Amino acid sequence: MKQKHLVIFSAIFLLVAFVAGAMLYRSQKSDESLQAYRRDKSTFIRENVPAFGNPAAKVDLVEFLDPACGTCKEFYPLVKKLMEAHPDKIRLYVRYAAFHQGSDYVVKILEAAHRQGKFRETLEAVFAAQDAWAPQHRPQPELVWNYIGGVGLDIRKLRHDMNLPEVEKIVQQGLADAKTLNVKATPEFFVNGKPLPSFGYDQLKSLVEEELAAAY
Amino acid sequence: MNSSGHAQDPNWVLVFACWLIASISTLGSLFFSEVMGFQPCVLCWYQRIAMYPLVLILPAGLFPLDRNIVRYALPLSLTGALIAGFHLLLVAGFIPESIKPCIQGVPCTEVQIEWFGFVTIPLLSGLSFLVISALLILTYRRSSK
Questions:
Q1: Is B5 among the domain residues?
Q2: Where does residue B82 rank: exposed (0-12), middle (13-18), buried (19+ CB within 10 A)?
Q3: For a FRET experiment, which of A209, B9, B75, B81 has its CA 20 to 30 Å from that of A181?
Q4: Which residue of B has its CA nearest to A27?
Q5: Domain assignment present for B4
Q6: Domain with B39 in it
Q7: Which helix (H) or strand (E) segment is A96 a member of?
Q8: pLDDT by residue (tens digit) across B114-140?
Q9: Strand, coil or helix: what is A28?
């Protein structure tokens, strides 16, 4: 074989092997996740996690999010729109993955707000002010207090609840489940247990639509 | 042997083997970070800085075969081997925590893969750099005869 051909052939072979390996890895992870979901949903959906939409919906959307994550904030209205496009057919479960340093503090606020029935409003306020309290992915979580005043929370109770050991346990539970489910970045979605083939809103939309078509 | 010659010159094959190892290591590291989602720690990045250029520099010495490529590539591969060695000592605990260079982000002592109970990412990196260095030195010796 000519030297030039050998180098070109090797380069092409390596690149093809890389792409094929990546596809194989993704489909294997997707199968694993789906099997885990069918065996036992509880790693995906813990009891009493914040949820939106019809409880009897046939499509479960599990979202791991971090309140300090910019992409999570961008996706929030998109997911909302997706759910509005298919009313009563999608149930969204929110899971915490406090990957940013300091966002566990905000997750505790969210969880304490959830106990007051004000999860959605608080999350929306936290996302709306994200640039102010978490500029350039460097959260200064104490600043969040300045932006959740209008939500109508019982702040004194909130400050008490967020320091409860149960709440800390929920933060750790989210991180542990994220690790088990191979969630390494936020937001991460599972549609009836299936992870996105690759990240993006279009991929999320088509996966949700596939599941809707199969379920309804 | 010229640039369109047949792949039988042993020196050419040695440099080509170095390029293959560097390419496999580069794609492997990208697989770990981009496909499997492992965050590279600071020391991993330093090793990448030594490995990635080899993929582009070595072919320049293959067409036509130029023994001087060893002089350009060997400093990179030896530097990489040193960093990988440091990384391995850090993971093994021979170097104390206090001089650990990474304070924030992913700690370099975190073991992200462990195949067969002992094959870690810095071990793979160190082996690649050592084999590349050995082959380059061999090329230089052979061609200076």
A1: no
A2: middle
A3: A209
A4: B35
A5: no
A6: 10-144
A7: strand A90-96
A8: 787 778 899 999 999 999 999 999 998
A9: helix
